Each structure stands twice: as C-alpha cells, then as structure tokens.
Amino acid sequence: MKYTTSIEIDLPREKVVQLISDPAQMPKWLRGLVLHEPTNGVHGHLGTTSRVVIQMGKQRMEATETITRVDPADLHSIPSSVVVHYDREIVGEGMWQAQRDRIIEAGPNTTLWESESEFRFDGLLMRLVALLMPGSFRKQSQQHMQDFKAFIEQGTDVRQGPN
C-alpha cells in the first residue's frame, strides 16, 4: 500500500526542518508517542536506528526506525532551491514501512511538507485491515501533519487536549 499526503505550513522552511527533526518536540505533535530513542547513532543522522513505541488506545506498537536518507546532510543554511529529503524505514511485528518526507520552500515564509508512505504487511490481520480500510492509514498520516502544523504555528500540544 502506497500513498502521499501533504500540508502547507505558514513558517519558513528552516524553522520547520529544525522542529520536525528535534526529538524533544516529537511528543508535542506525534500523538501516542511513548518513546523515540536512538539505539545506534545520533538522532536525525543517516544510518541511525531508534526504538519507537506508540500507544493508540489500548494498542501498543513497538518498532525499529532506521534513517535511510538525510539530504542535504547539513540542515542549516539550505539554499531555497534545494528540497530537503528525510527518509526512514520502520519495522515492527508484521509490518514494514518506508516514510519519505520532502520539505520544500514554497515561499519566503511558507513550507510545503510532502510525505510518501509505503507499507508492507506479513500478518493476515494487518493485510485485511490495509485492504478493507486503506483510508485509515492516510487519515492517520494526515492527522500527524495537521498536529505538527498546529504545534509549529500555534504552539498546540497534542498531550494537552482530547485525543
């Protein structure tokens, strides 16, 4: 299963890149994030693996995330014509996901965040869920983007309100 979501953010790209890659900020906009800790390498750097734990209701998911692309490697003073690429592979029980993010300068104070998600499932149950309810995956991805936008533009913390 593959899909792309996008959102426009009313802030300069440099600020967006800085906050989206800051692990201390992640729990403020990534609903259900319990833990995101590097097990090998430095957060945000190519090749780094991290243990990720997400809690959604009574469902708890643990996975390993590996950063497969950071381009450019130095995320400071990026020319406006350059698209920032931040790709990850996430492997959990019965599933594999590739997340390919592109952060594009859309204007002097506007950023476009495009995210391509690709999923593969091993288990019959998850294959059925993906087949019968593919929109739920897209909806969750879009929710994460909207939560990030609300966090970065208005300071809204997902932990403060109803989920």
How would you characterize this protein structure?
The chain is α+β, with helices and mostly antiparallel strands and 163 residues long. The protein has one domain: START domain (Alpha-D-Glucose-1,6-Bisphosphate, Chain A, domain 4), CATH 3.30.530. Helix content is 26%, strand content 44%. It is built from four helices and seven strands; from the N terminus they run E-H-H-E-E-E-E-E-E-H-H. The protein has a seven-stranded antiparallel sheet. Helix 3 packs across helix 4. The longest helix has 21 residues. It is globular and about 45 Å long. The model has no long low-confidence stretch (mean pLDDT 89).
- Total E-strand runs: 7
CATH H level, superfamily name: START domain
Structural class: alpha+beta
Strand content: 35-45%
Highest CATH level, the class: Alpha Beta
- Identify the overall geometry: globular
Largest sheet: 7 strands, antiparallel
Concise structural overview:
With 163 residues, the chain is an alpha+beta fold.
